[in-house]
Amino acid sequence: MKILLTEFRQESNSFNPTLSSLEFWHHTGEYEGQAVRDTFTDQPCAIGGFLKALDESSLEPEVICGTVMASQSGGVAEQAVMDHYLSRLIPQIEANPGLDGIFVSFHGALMTTDFDDPEGEITKRIRALVGNDTVIAVATDLHAYISQTLVEHANVILGYLTYPHVDHFETGYRTARIGIDAIASDVRPVTAWVPIPMIAPAASYNTLDGAFKEVIDHGHTLRDAGSILDFTVYQMQPWLDIPEPNSAAIAVADNAEDAARYATELAELLYGKRYEFKSSLATIDDVIALAKDTSQPKPIILVDSADSCNAGASGDNMAVAEQILAIGGNIRAASVVNDAPAARKAHELGVGATAEFTLGATRNPASTSITGEARVKSLHDGVFRQEGPAGRGMTQRIGRTAVLTFGNLDVVVCEWMAGNGDPQLYRAHGIEPTLYDLVVVKASTSFRAGYSAFAGAIVEADTPGAASSDLMRLPFTRLPTTIYPWRDDPAPEWTVTYAPIAGRRA
Questions:
Q1: How far lies 138's CA from each of 6, 195, 214, 324, in Å?
Q2: From the CA atom positions of the chain, what is the Rg in Å?
Q3: DSSP, res 290
Q4: What is the pLDDT of residues 461-476, one digit of tens each?
Q5: Which end of the chain is more exposed for a tag (fewer CB within 10 A), N or C?
């Protein structure tokens, strides 16, 4: 058995005006060959899961490590990024004829300047190269856009089952195990896909409690009972302005009948809970007032999800910081911003220097900026390891970083933000969140896995940005209003599409 594994993943945001360049992608690195094993073996990511499943297999497959490229979420990717990836991947496939499988890690919500669905297009091109016998198994994020094109050209598609996402490794492992079975088992698994006509703000649900947890729990019950082999319920990332959007349910079973039945059941269950996926947003001023309340346990976590870099926003909006400086009084507060010019200026000035700084609006001109005198509190190389539980131990590199102090407000200023939802974004740079009254977190839900353990209160704020939870305020121009929440169809007509069955071995 010969398997090639590869990754090409980013979550794109149509409303971030700054395109994601190849240089931006290369901040995260590019790997192939032995460097993939050296970097990702046993790491909490899909590639780590692929490697574990393949190395454990009694079939002892030959593993070819193709190109692995991933990027921090951001604006739509320049087409040159996809072209570069394919210029590496296609020769790797051509140099290894007779592949039994290709295991791919995608996010599923990537856009390029030429393609609304680059993952589907890439899978289509892979299929054209390898023919119909090679198994293509795809691991994705829970927030993927699963397209008809992807389903028609992949054999196995599975995504995360947690939000906050803490099962990156497990998803890669699950996908690879099903992929191996699709190649070698006597009874090959069948993947069924049911699109769901809805999108929901990502901050309105999680798998810790509530309606979405009930849907995922039902899928686990089906899997534990042996009714299905595996499943995913996708809540499509809602900041993609594309003409054919959908959330989706996928079920993998030993036969087409069960796969279709349970994929439809999961789709109906998610859609039936659509009214429960709404965000309750507080004003920035109200959250600041809560932080000023001495009877309230601290810290108060102000969730600035609209400016979440994890959701592809620019991370350079200082609207919250502006209000903290205006009305915060003596509360001790911490925030973070993407501002490469300010970070470089701080490094030039040195620790202890005081100067006038303007922070914000360096990536998105529509963002709010602040200007004032600040002291350079500390300087850093921006390399830190996440504490998790999501991605525990993974190394993040956010470029030259400084902590600037504006009175009682400390701001982590970095060249390119990553690890938004992990407390180490602050702790690694000398800011201990539990010693602050108010901490701004630019993330949607991922932060809950780390911050819930010590937060006095977590409050989602109504902030401006490209990843707003108020979908009606977003400037969609291509997304049709034929899906929920624009159209509320009480009884959608469910359609089932099967991924092709492949595999040479009996």
A1: 10, 17, 25, 44
A2: 23
A3: H
A4: 999 999 999 999 899 9
A5: C
